[in-house]
Write a structure and sequence with these properties.
The protein is of the alpha+beta class. It contains 17 helices and seven strands. It has a four-stranded antiparallel β-sheet with strand order 1-2-3-4, with helices on one face. A three-stranded antiparallel β-sheet has the order 5-6-7. It is elongated and about 85 Å long.
């Protein structure tokens, strides 16, 4: 007479199987009405035993628990408790489109990132649509990615711009592959992007040019010139300067300084971006002028409680700078110049990193509280023009 245990398992022969003659596995199709919601068709569990009797006993326990949890739509709990692995989908199940992948990316990765993050991701995907359309992820090939690369290069984009665009799309596709468990490789992963002359180096701002610009900023004495002067002797990123409020500008102290910290209207690029920066030279002058302006924000023409419009500021400042600086120099060139100026006075690189908020490699650099204002001021005073 067949026992209840044997009847249960044998009537559902797909519940137990052996792989390569080693351990028993419990394999069971998810009820059809739940497959779409769960995004999977089957579960596979290693029972970690060669004994059929033990495998049958484990299968009964799992079946009872699955029935209970399926009723409550708690399959993920069962998976974590029993180390279940979901069956990888076949190539026919890779029908998620690129536009759906973008929506998934923005939902999971875009939370709290601001409008610029979403705008950049959408722009990059839309550029790809113009060349290839909106295929499913499974239909994408490395040839499609290469065609898109060639299209961007033909449009005259610099190598660095092409790489940023590819990095964005690669992240979008990778997340979709990961979240949906697709058995495919990312076609954007290994596409070669050739370097060009513009990618080899970024021009720095000559010291003599900075001195002339600082004098003109002081003579003009308006908000845009305050912004340039503030950046010129601190090396701040444009967004860091734009996001300042008056509470971030500390003048009534032994070492006047700026507090670079995150605000709801302006995120910081990296963890090391959060720092204190001494005010010296024309940056100190600019800070004093800013404190005389009404309102909370240092640059209210570009920043409000809801956003920080770095693109508008960059366009306005670069338009003013263009006839006054060497070819290729822009607002960000002040930041590169500060690094060069500190290097010229033999400032240790880790102190330069602390002043500019550059990320420093190496485990040891993450220990301790870093350099204080006294040390930073000492080296910045050496580069006052």
């Amino acid at each position: 007479m067949v026992s209840m245990v044997d009847q249960m398992v044998d009537q559902n022969g797909t519940y137990l199987t052996r792989r390569r003659g080693v351990h028993y596995y419990y394999t069971r199709r998810i009820p059809k009405e739940l497959q779409k919601r769960l995004g999977k068709k089957r579960i596979v569990v290693s029972l970690k035993t060669k004994s059929r009797r033990k495998a049958i006993a484990s299968a009964i326990v799992l079946s009872e628990k699955l029935e209970s949890f399926w009723n409550g739509m708690k399959l993920e709990v069962i998976i974590s408790q029993h180390s279940m692995t979901l069956e990888r989908p076949t190539s026919g199940e890779t029908s998620i489109s690129l536009s759906e992948a973008l929506d998934l990316y923005l939902r999971l990765k875009g939370n709290g990132k601001g409008e610029a993050f979403e705008r950049t991701a959408r722009r990059n995907i839309e550029q790809f649509y113009a060349v290839v359309g909106d295929p499913s992820i499974g239909e994408l090939t490395s040839a499609d990615a290469a065609s898109f690369r060639d299209h961007l290069i033909e449009r005259g984009l610099a190598s660095s711009s092409v790489k940023r665009c590819f990095a964005s799309i690669r992240s979008i596709v990778s997340l979709a592959i990961q979240e949906h468990g697709l058995p495919i490789t990312n076609p954007f992963a290994k596409v070669f992007i050739p370097a060009d002359d513009r990618s080899k180096s970024r021009p720095t701002m000559p010291v003599k040019t900075i001195k002339i610009l600082q004098a003109e900023c002081e003579a003009t004495n308006d908000p845009n010139r305050h912004l340039l002067a503030l950046i010129s002797d601190t090396g701040l990123r444009l967004s860091e300067a734009l996001g300042l409020i008056k509470e971030d500008i500390v003048l009534d102290t032994e070492i006047p300084h700026l507090i670079i910290q995150e605000h709801p209207w302006r995120k910081l690029k990296t963890a090391s971006s959060e720092r204190l920066v001494p005010l010296i030279g024309k940056s100190y002058w600019a800070a004093g002028q800013i404190m005389q302006i009404e309102g909370q924000f240092a640059f209210s023409n570009y920043t409000s409680a809801s956003k920080c419009n770095a693109n508008s500021a960059s366009a306005a400042l670069n338009k003013w700078l263009k006839p006054r600086v060497p070819d290729g120099c822009v607002v960000h060139s002040f930041r590169h110049a500060l690094r060069d100026r500190l290097r010229a006075v033999e400032c240790p690189s880790d102190i330069s990193d602390a002043i500019g908020g550059w990320s420093t490699s190496g485990i040891g650099h993450s220990y301790g509280d870093g350099y204080d204002l006294v040390v930073k001021q000492k080296w910045l005073q050496k580069i006052v023009i």
